[in-house]
Structure formats: C-alpha cells, structure tokens
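Form 12-C: Joint structure prediction
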Amino acid sequence: GQQVMQIPQYQHVQEGEDFTTYCNSSTTLSNIQWYKQRPGGHPVFLIQLVKSGEVKKQKRLTFQFGEAKKNSSLHITATQTTDVGTYFCAGFGILDSNYQLIWGAGTKLIIKP
Amino acid sequence: SQTIHQWPATLVQPVGSPLSLECTVEGTSNPNLYWYRQAAGRGLQLLFYSVGIGQISSEVPQNLSASRPQDRQFILSSKKLLLSDSGFYLCAWTRAVQETQYFGPGTRLLVL
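Section 2 - Result
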C-alpha cells in the first residue's frame, strides 16, 4: 500500500543552524499536512499544502510540496530552542483501499547544548 | 471554540485488566473521530476512526475496540490488556476527512 517515508529520523543541530525534514510518498498525494509535537505533548497542526509546487512560509519555517505531489519538505532557518520537538508530515492518499491520512514516522529535532 | 478532552491523563494497569479511555469533543457537531497510539519515540499508528454514531472502522487487528455511543464521545476499550498495549493514546477530531486533525492531550498508558 501507499506509504509516506520521512527522513531523517533524528537531527541534532546547534542552535542557530538550519534544519530540514523530508517526506516522500510512493504515489501522488492529494494534499499534505505538517504537525509539530513538543516533548511530552500532542501533535499540533502547522500547515496544509494542496497545490503542486506550493511553497508556504511561517516566519522561519518554509514548507514545500513537490511538483508531482509526491514529496514535501519543511525547512527551519536558524533554529531556536523553542523549535525542539518531532515534526510529522501526513498526506492524503489511498491506503488499503481507503482514502485516508497517511502519517510519516516523524523527524525529531534535537538542539545540542 | 472547539475543545477536545481525554481522560485519564495517565494510567498504570496490570496485564490482563480491562481498559476504558474516553474522548469528548465540545463546540462542534458530527465530527470525524480518531484513536491513535504512539509508542515511545515513534510515530502515530491509527487504531480506529468514526464518521458517525455507531460507525467504527478498525485499522489494525488487536485486542482493542472502540465505540461511539454519542455524537461527540469516542471510547477506546480492551477486555484484557497486554504489555504491548503500553503507549501514548491520542484522540483527534476533524470537520471533514481532508481537514486539519485536532488532537487531545492524550493518555499515557503503562501496562505492567
């Protein structure tokens, strides 16, 4: 069935460095959502991308949806300690004959002391 | 505004005991409701979803079950817990299938 692969699993950065996480789907997604989960917390919606090639920005966060609607990325410029957490992508596609939200495994952002 | 509640916040249960986790949504009607489980340091596994009262779809065969006795109430149950049932259980709601998922605060379950 359709899968959404998310890499890397972990990323350690110094505060002030950039961070990027990537999601790749085996087939076309109708849209993709990004969520952030702080340590000990629950996932919180960040953004949804719908159009092919779409790019959206939220302050230091830049979200992209690929031209083929099979991949997406989240880039954080100049990370801060408040960025710590796990970032999940989730795309709408066909899984086991059902049209549903398919979650990536998440990328954990760790800020080195 | 809409809010989603889950209880209890934490739970420690012995193997073989029953389980009942509750999720309620306020401020909206006819939401789609979801139960997820998250193992420590892992991603989200969809367990059940419901598009209406009494309508439950199961994603993963296991010893858990779900029920939706009221429009804004979603319950996760088990008759006999296994060690592997330990994890962080999250309830979520959406207005429609492709819209934003809003998560509750979660229940941390430890089965000993």
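Section 3 - Comments
The mean pLDDT of chain A is 94. The two ends of chain A are 41 Å apart (CA to CA).
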